[in-house]
Amino acid sequence: MSTVMKSTNPTTSDPLMIDGVAYQSRLLVGTGKYRDMEETRLAVEASGAEIVTVAIRRTNIGQNKDEPSLLDVLPPDRYTYLPNTAGCYSAEDAVRTCRLARELLDGHSLVKLEVLGDEKTLFPDIVQTLAAAETLVKDSFRVMVYTNDDPIIARRLEDMGCVAVMPLAAPIGSGLGIRNPYNIVTIVENAGVPILVDAGVGCASDAAIAMELGCDGVLMNTAIAGAREPVLMASAMKKAIEAGRESYLAGRIPRKRFASASSPLDGMFF
Length: 270
What we know:
Layout lengths: L9 H4 L2 E3 L2 E3 L3 E4 L6 H11 L3 E5 L14 H4 L6 E5 L6 H14 L5 E4 L12 H13 L3 E6 L3 H10 L3 E4 L13 H9 L6 E3 L5 H9 L4 E4 L1 H4 L4 H21 L20
């Protein structure tokens, strides 16, 4: 877990550090499922995100020369691209996809690894994820890895050399919110790399809760792209991430069974 910096202005003095690079936004957003490229651009801008994920197997970033490219609306000199292996069901496919992304993006080595185990639930295949992560780290990729909310697996992925671990809050696209906050907190408390919730966020309060649990950031796509008003939801998510982080830094009061007066009577004259 990154070191908490005490500050009255977290957005400028408390950056998200990933692989030695500082980012002011702790919200990472996907680029799929929007109605068109223009809506993608507007939503990403409203989110304030600096890191955008792109599914190499589904999105054109130059491999299809005669089709519109995402690079035209989200220029790489403004955003950090995070190629992901969405749609891969084996370690071999995931590694191949990452190598294609590195070729298309001129040697770019920061990738998001996800290896799915089931088409219905989209839960990660942990055995294949571990195998792919090992290969990619040895091949000098900087791996941010999607996994389940198992603290043991999270630690193993960190020990293997992944630069960030991204446990799910709930199944991809479900919008169920954080189903097991205790596991997320355990992962955060024992981590030496950034922990970002990935998958399952449905609304702004879900994002704020993730940040209040101590997560370094949140990655989302469907929660924004699938909203009735994606651009407005992107703006809401930006504010939620910032509020949740400030709340975490400020330190909440303890939960108590009974009321505690804001103005105690002790020491008063009657």
